[in-house]
Amino acid sequence: MKCLVIRHLAFEDLGVFAPVLTERGYEIAYRQAGVHPLSQEEWLAADLGVVLGGPIGVYEQDRYPWLTQEMRRVGQRLRAGKPTLGICLGAQIIAAALGARVYPGKAKEIGWAPVSLTPEGQASPLRHLAGVPVLHWHGDTFDLPAGARLLAGTAITQHQAFAITDQALALQFHPEVDASAIECWLIGHTAELSQAGVDVVALREASQRHGAAAALAGAALLRDWLARG
């Protein structure tokens, strides 16, 4: 089986999700957004499509024209009922591909905190995250697409996760993050952290405290979701 991953930043990879996919027999291949062409045939042939996070906005297609094609490809997978997972920007791209609005949220949400699960979220693979702080790192949000099941939210961001049947899962937060590599995020996003007034030392310490439990919960979430697909 093949897992094809669209990556927007070199250091935002599959993280703790990679070993789960490998143990399930997936061959993982990355494609760098805006650099590596992604044909419709290759994208639709993949057994699993994953769209990872990034610091740009879905609505910046005038600045990043390749976003238009990326959203078109994601829409094609969704319409074909192919298993698709979106994280952060990837979740926003899924929302946009389904016709929902994506826009700046009311505040930056950067740091470790649990999500509040809806009743449907408690019955979904997200049940493994109950009470577990996860990494939030976003400024944008989205409206819930038509036909989507809302699974989780926070006080700042009402729409944190949704599902379309059992084939598509969109997660605004980062259950895939490997906290042992958080320094790459702290360096790569230093300008954003400074502009947002985030305490880098405190964020590093929180990552050390919560990383192990979040990794276990994230891996359990992915195993559960793959088993249902």
UniProtKB/TrEMBL annotation:
An annotated GO cellular component of this protein is: cytosol
Instruction: Using the record for this protein, list the coiled-coil segments as residue ranges, or answer none.
Output: none
Q: Where is the Glutamine amidotransferase domain?
A: 43-180
Q: Name one Pfam family in it.
A: GATase
InterPro entries, alphabetized? ChyE-like (IPR044992), Class_I_gatase-like (IPR029062), GATASE (IPR017926)
* The organism's place on the tree of life at top rank: Bacteria
PROSITE patterns found in the cross-reference section:
GATASE_TYPE_1
Q: Which SUPFAM superfamilies match?
A: Class I glutamine amidotransferase-like (SSF52317)
Protein name, entry field: GMP synthase (Glutamine-hydrolysing)
- Please name the source species: Roseateles toxinivorans
Q: What lineage is on file?
A: Bacteria, Pseudomonadati, Pseudomonadota, Betaproteobacteria, Burkholderiales
